[in-house]
Design goal:
By secondary structure, the chain is α/β, with parallel strands linked by helices. Helix content is 52%, strand content 14%. It has 9 helices and 9 strands. The strands form 3 sheets. A 4-stranded mixed beta sheet has the order 1-5-3-6, sandwiched between helices. A 3-stranded mixed beta sheet has the order 2-7-4, with no helix packed on it. A two-stranded antiparallel ribbon has the order 8-9. Helix 6 (142-152) crosses helix 9 (233-250).
Length: 264
């Protein structure tokens, strides 16, 4: 940031692909909406089985917490703000006035926290969706998925929970209950094949399983994938559950690229 020139700073990741118009359109949108912090959500590339199975599980958690882009933009609470470090624009004058990244140096999810801290200090935060202008492949293997989300999902998001310690506790509970609730109906159906269960229980398992698979079909379609990939969602739920458990056990301690951190 100190070396850059110009009125706007653009922060990005090394693994992002930017469309030809992303900068021009972003600057136009910043000026039109009078934004100080402006961020773009792009397409998340998923190529391997494990990416397709696990990544949507995490995206649903994030979406459930923050809602859509306009929910983030219009919220009057700082704790509901977020930005995407894969494509983040900040007015230089605002960045320098508010202390830049130094104000979030102790946080893992610095992109989320910079949106919240800057908003608290009077900056206007705008989040938008630009799937045709930005794409990122976050992780390419099961090991990198485990390491990346093991780092981010609790240690990173715990600071973004409302209601202090109570909110962090409830977030931990939700992280564990989501995959459990997702797997429960299918577990009932599989159990009925081994041991007879009441017709009411089997009916509940059938209806609930159909609803869950239908939900994941919609999620995969929304991610630009075949709804039939919903059949691998139980595998994703199991893997996500194990990642969540490990993240919760580590609490504020994270490991990333062979470095150890203790975050706020």
């Amino acid at each position: 940031a100190r070396e850059a020139r110009g009125d706007f700073l653009c922060f990005t990741d090394a693994d992002t692909l930017h469309g030809n118009e992303v900068v021009v359109r972003s600057v136009n949108c910043i000026n039109r909406r009078e934004a100080d912090v402006f961020s773009v959500l792009g397409t998340q590339e998923m190529r391997t089985f494990w990416e397709l199975a696990i990544m949507p599980q995490v995206f649903v958690v994030i979406g459930g917490r923050f809602g859509g882009t306009e929910d983030v933009t219009s919220s009057s609470r700082s704790v509901d703000k977020m930005s995407n470090g894969q494509c983040l624009f900040i007015r230089r004058s605002v960045y320098e006035k508010l202390g830049g990244h130094s104000v979030v140096r102790a946080h893992v999810s610095d992109d989320i926290m910079i949106a919240q801290r800057f908003f608290e200090r009077g900056a206007k935060v705008v989040l938008t969706h630009g799937p045709s202008h930005l794409s990122t492949r976050m992780y390419s293997s099961l090991e990198t998925i485990r390491g990346g989300w093991g780092k981010n999902i609790y240690a990173g998001f715990r600071s973004a929970m409302p209601y202090g310690a109570t909110g962090r506790f409830l977030f931990a509970v939700v992280l564990l209950l989501m995959p459990i609730f997702e797997l429960a109906p299918l577990t009932v159906l599989l159990s009925s094949l081994v041991r007879p269960l009441s017709s009411v229980v089997v009916l509940w398992g059938s209806v609930a399983s159909a609803g869950i698979f239908g939900f994941w079909g919609v999620v995969y379609r929304g991610l630009g994938r075949s709804p039939l990939l919903a059949v691998i969602s139980p595998v994703g739920a199991i893997a996500a559950f194990l990642i969540f458990v490990k993240a919760l056990l580590r609490k504020r301690r994270v490991t990333w690229k062979e470095r150890e951190y203790v975050v706020e």
